[in-house]
Specification:
Elements lengths: L2 H15 L7 E2 L1 H7 L2 H13 L4 E2 L4 E5 L3 E10 L3 E9 L11 E9 L5 E6 H20 L6 E5 L4 H12 L4 E5 L3 H13 L7 E4 L3 H7 L2 E4 L18 E4 L12 H6 L1 E4 L2 H7 L1 H8 L8 E4 H5 L13 E4 L4 H15 L2
Parallel strand pairs: 1-7, 8-9, 8-11, 9-10, 11-12, 12-15, 13-14, 13-15
Antiparallel strand pairs: 2-4, 3-4, 4-5, 5-6, 6-7
Helix pairs in contact: 2-4, 3-4, 3-12, 4-5, 4-12, 5-6
Length: 337
């Protein structure tokens, strides 16, 4: 039985047990409508600034048959919401012409434990991931940034581009992927996702040349070998690394990781899961103290972010249940209005 079927049955059972309390299911289209990027970025800024009020245990990973994985990501605020994201990763689904990742989010009251909503977890994750990067860009990219390079053509690419356009007054987007045809397809999907009309978008056949033109580089891939090289990046660039969420993954070379000013979404998650950090550290090229600040410190002003116009800044995110909880709370709040 698929995870969505299990949660649907759970919803039906809870409704049958109590006629006075039905649990709404908030579907993908409703989630998207409830999470406009300006509002979501502000909700995330408040959440990360108030991170000491939220308990975020490390995520649980369980092996399932067929090389599949079940991930459980809980978080709770002492006086607000309790949430858990349930994710199944099933690599064999590629052969079934199905998505490899399915996710649902269960939001409850921390005080009473009463379930408040079951939320489509895939759109929730896409939107909060892009909004976290865009929020970080407000602290770390130059305010006069005009050209964005999007490295990667997956489902995150349209969300990342549109969110970055909310953070800065971008005029041009370059899309690069290993497959030129997929890059062209991605251009169409980005336009359809809400790219502002004034923004010019095109593919970039050469990654090195595209890097040299970009003010902001967003990389969202599953690469296990570095794609971005320090020699290609001009002074003043902001790098946004999103895709490498396992210690075996890399998106930037050692030279870039050791020359850029480094920032992360959360220290604990990044130091445990980000291969772009753990591999240079294992090689003795980086220390944990080389991380200048996390998004919490940026959000409540403990660190000013970018220091100079020619500084190369780099933000590495691996995802946080704190961001899921903030996004889910906003979905629930706006969906009942």
């Amino acid at each position: 039985m698929r995870l969505i079927d299990v949660l649907y049955c759970f919803r039906l059972r809870c409704a049958a047990m109590s006629e006075s309390h039905s649990i709404p299911f908030i579907a993908a289209a409703q989630v998207r409508a409830a999470l406009p990027y300006p509002a979501l970025m502000e909700a995330l800024r408040r959440a990360f600034a108030d991170a000491d009020q939220v308990q975020v245990p490390r995520r649980h990973a369980h092996a399932l048959p067929g090389d599949a994985t079940l991930l459980l990501m809980p978080a709770w605020h002492a006086h607000q919401h309790l949430g858990i994201k349930l994710v199944t990763v099933t690599p064999m689904n590629r052969e079934r012409d199905l998505p490899t990742v399915h996710a649902l989010y269960v939001l409850s009251s921390t005080e009473t434990g009463v379930p408040l909503a079951i939320i489509d977890g895939e759109v929730l994750t896409l939107r909060r991931t892009a909004a976290v990067s865009a929020l970080a860009s407000r602290f770390l990219s130059r305010s006069d940034s005009r050209t964005l390079l999007m490295v990667g053509t997956g489902r995150l690419a349209p969300e990342m581009v549109v969110a970055h356009c909310e953070a800065r007054n971008l005029q041009r987007v370059i899309v690069w992927g290993r497959s030129e045809s997929k890059a062209r397809d991605s251009v169409g999907r980005i336009r359809a996702a809400g790219l502002p009309d004034h923004v010019d978008i095109q593919t970039g056949p050469s990654l090195a040349a595209a890097c040299a033109e970009a003010d902001i580089i967003c990389c969202a891939t599953t690469s296990t070998e570095p794609l971005l090289r320090a020699a290609w990046v001009k002074p003043g660039t902001h790098i946004d690394l999103v895709g490498g969420f396992r210690p075996t993954m890399r998106e930037a070379d050692d030279a870039l990781m050791t020359t850029a000013a480094l920032f992360v979404d959360t220290q604990e998650g990044a130091l445990a899961e980000a291969g772009d950090l753990t591999q240079p550290m294992q090689a003795g090229l980086l220390l944990p103290t080389d991380l200048l600040a996390d998004l919490g410190a940026l959000s409540h002003g403990a660190h000013p972010g970018r220091q100079t116009a020619d500084q190369i800044t780099l933000f590495k995110s691996v995802g946080s249940a704190l961001a899921d909880l903030a996004a889910a709370g906003l979905v629930q709040e706006l969906s009942i209005q």
